[in-house]
């Protein structure tokens, strides 16, 4: 049973086999470092030797990462694989129903283990299916994307979309373990790396100014340089989750950029343009919500200007018109942080310090969208690289 925030929550780090570092977050071990696949092999032999094992991934993660997984984890070589289509469209009740049926038809039991191999979408779907099949079976996350490693796989939040609204149906249930094998990132392109880096930047903005400055200055194409920053982001996420498992307070800090970002992400998939990745939408959300933080008198102007300069320099802008505001505001009205029909945003008091539950009006949110649209247009107009 999950404990209330602060009720015995703790964060513990241990150095274990083959250079693996383990962070205990809300009772769920997150393994980082060189030996995480060996640690998975050890756990499977010790705790699940005779259990049925299933590997869930999407077509990309199974093609690109499964061979490396099986090369190191012999205990999974006979495990059947289950593939879902890549992309946000797989976060649906229909896909989950098919997975529940597949598990049932394959003889999965309460003692079975579901290995979730993939990025943010696979993690959300796999975590939800694992939490609900037979009221919960053991689930182990092996994130293959940067987004999964620093955010989606950690903390036990999972879910699917409903009627175009992100994450409307889901659970909070900690996985049996998370194994962060950073070499999987070699399979990613630049866009996917930047997608995950957005969440690392967010961690810095709401929790740790030093981390913000380190991530923004890092060469994102260099995995050796990125590795300690990935570990720090995972550590920050674990610390917050440990103190507030059910998101009653401090964990809401991690929603910075998401009130507007989730709405923009959902809206982007409705139009003729190619949809935004989650991190790309969160960047727009952070730009808008950083501006709101200054506009509402919470954050100094120089902090907002610095944040905007850094994000606009790193990320391409997303084109939308003022005519799109109504749809985005409608989507924001379904945000889980809202109370009594009013928007509640996580904003900033400064770089490294967030504030939860700030009331924002629809007019102010629309003004923030306008500010982003005009500022991003100016950056693109004056910078041929934008």
What do these coordinates show?
- The chain has 386 residues and is of the alpha/beta class.
- It folds into two domains: 11-243, Rossmann fold (3-Layer(aba) Sandwich); 256-381, Up-down Bundle (Dehydroquinate synthase-like, alpha domain), CATH 1.20.1090.10.
- 46% of the residues lie in helices and 19% in strands.
- It contains 14 helices and twelve strands.
- The chain has an eight-stranded mixed sheet, with helices on both faces. Strands 8-9 form a two-stranded antiparallel ribbon.
- The longest helix is centred in the middle third of the chain and has 21 residues, at 223-243.
- It is globular, with a radius of gyration of 20 Å.
- Mean pLDDT is 91; it is low at 1-13.
What's the gist of this structure?
By secondary structure, this protein is an alpha/beta fold. The protein contains 14 helices and 12 strands. The chain starts with 10 loop residues before the first strand and ends with a helix.
Could you name the key traits of this structure?
386 residues, alpha/beta, Rossmann fold, Dehydroquinate synthase-like, alpha domain, 2 domains, 8-stranded mixed β-sheet, two-stranded antiparallel ribbon, 14 helices, 12 strands, disordered N terminus
Molecular shape: globular
Number of domains: 2
CATH topology of the largest domain: Rossmann fold
Number of strands: 12
Note the topology.
Elements lengths: L10 E5 L4 E6 L2 E6 L2 H12 L5 E6 H6 L1 H7 L8 E4 L8 H13 L7 E6 L1 H13 L5 E6 L2 H7 L4 E6 L2 E8 L4 E4 L9 H18 L1 H9 L5 H21 L14 H11 L9 H18 L5 H14 L10 H8 L10 E8 L2 E8 L1 H21 L4
Parallel strand pairs: 3-10, 4-5, 4-6, 6-7, 7-10
Antiparallel strand pairs: 1-2, 2-3, 8-9, 11-12
Helix pairs in contact: 5-6, 6-7, 6-9, 7-8, 7-9, 7-11, 10-11, 10-13, 11-12, 11-14
